[in-house]
């Protein structure tokens, strides 16, 4: 019976390209089957949930590569390897920069996604696969930002380690006394053997990771918080832009508050406005100072999942940035639904900042007292 079941199982290997998967993105940016024109179906096999999950993950990896390709070819972004002084032997990550990200004298937009499987250029893999590229990727933000004269940096906070296969443990040799062991001990051993067989069939039915792996962290980029700090120190703080703008989704908001705790004076000096989307930050748990809370109230907005119409004020939970409805109750859609509102908010913030600078007679405004932060860290 087991052997028959194994024969009926679909293979555990999955296609490596969209073409092999028989899917393509149509003109509307929707993923569709090349023959039937139908949307992606998760339950390809009703009785094999984990097999379906594996297939979905394999498609997700292809989508990740596809988005990288779009960033490079459609958006003309350049991949920059991290750490900046990486050696050939060590694991590496990367971010994407527009051609003028470091040199644009006026405006820089920094995009930070949430945590999980999403990589550079994505807000939500689920949206890319089940809805479209516009709602699930950061490409509309990049395109609009470039049209409005921003330099752009696309962060990659979840690329934290290299996964390598752990060497298999050598099988111990049977002892010569094995045949003389007591019957009770042999029975226990037989039970273990049959459990191994059951586990094998279970693994075959529900394929998970086939081998043991270990993770080698990427130097100074081993977590989303570390990654943001590293990119701030090596890129944002050395960029020419007088005004930095940040969009931070979900866990990205938490990483941003963490950055403020580490580099408060620098962030206040360089950042004009922050748009969070359903951020999971917590100013109390993260020990954000009173001055950070006040700055967030002034310069930050958080578009949250809510049944209320877009931009409706939502009761704040803590005394930090004002919360507005993103016009959707779906967490992963909050960035896309608040897209226009975010760019309007940035324009107003820039206008207000410029008016403040023009009317100020002092030399202590945000942009005029800025110095090049070479090694001037606030930690």
Automatic annotation (TrEMBL):
Q: Where is the composition biased (Basic residues)?
A: 367-379
Q: Which GO terms describe its molecular function?
A: siRNA binding
Entries under InterPro entries matching the protein: AB_hydrolase_fold, Arb2, Arb2_dom
Please give the biological process terms from Gene Ontology that the record holds: regulatory ncRNA-mediated heterochromatin formation
Positions of the Arb2 domain: 14-310
Q: Where is the composition biased (Basic and acidic residues)?
A: 182-212
Please identify the protein, giving its name as recorded. Arb2 domain-containing protein
């Amino acid at each position: 019976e087991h052997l028959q079941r194994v024969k009926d199982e679909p293979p555990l290997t999955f296609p490596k390209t969209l073409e092999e998967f028989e899917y393509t993105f149509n003109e509307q940016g929707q993923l569709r089957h090349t023959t039937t024109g139908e949307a992606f179906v998760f339950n390809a096999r009703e009785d094999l949930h984990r097999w379906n999950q594996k297939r979905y993950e394999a498609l997700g990896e292809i989508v990740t590569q596809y988005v990288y390709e779009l960033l490079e070819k459609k958006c003309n972004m350049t991949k920059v390897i991290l750490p900046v002084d990486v050696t050939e032997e060590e694991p590496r990550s990367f971010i994407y920069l527009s051609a003028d990200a470091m040199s644009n004298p006026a405006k820089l937009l920094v995009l930070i996604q949430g945590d999980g499987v999403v990589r550079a250029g994505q807000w939500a893999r689920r949206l890319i696969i089940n809805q479209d590229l516009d709602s699930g990727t950061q490409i509309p933000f990049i395109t609009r930002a470039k049209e409005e004269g921003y330099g752009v940096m696309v962060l990659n906070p979840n690329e934290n380690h290299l996964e390598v296969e752990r060497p298999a443990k050598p099988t111990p040799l049977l002892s010569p006394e094995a045949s003389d062991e007591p019957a009770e001990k042999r029975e226990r051993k037989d039970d273990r053997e049959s459990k191994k067989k059951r586990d094998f069939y279970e693994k075959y039915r529900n394929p998970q990771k086939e081998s043991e792996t270990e993770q080698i962290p990427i130097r100074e980029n081993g977590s989303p918080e570390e990654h943001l700090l590293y990119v701030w120190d090596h890129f944002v703080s050395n960029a020419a832009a007088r005004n930095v703008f940040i969009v931070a989704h979900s866990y990205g908001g938490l990483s941003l508050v963490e950055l403020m705790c580490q580099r408060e004076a620098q962030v206040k000096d360089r950042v004009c406005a922050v748009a969070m989307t359903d951020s999971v930050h917590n100013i109390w748990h993260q020990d954000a100072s009173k001055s950070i809370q006040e700055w967030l109230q002034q310069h930050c907005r958080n578009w949250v999942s809510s049944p209320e119409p877009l931009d409706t004020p939502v009761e704040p939970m803590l005394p930090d940035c004002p919360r507005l409805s993103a016009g959707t109750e779906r967490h992963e859609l909050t960035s896309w639904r608040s897209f226009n509102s975010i760019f309007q908010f940035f324009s107003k913030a820039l206008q207000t900042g410029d008016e403040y600078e023009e009317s100020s007679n002092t030399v202590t405004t945000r942009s005029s007292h800025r110095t090049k932060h070479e090694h001037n860290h606030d930690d």
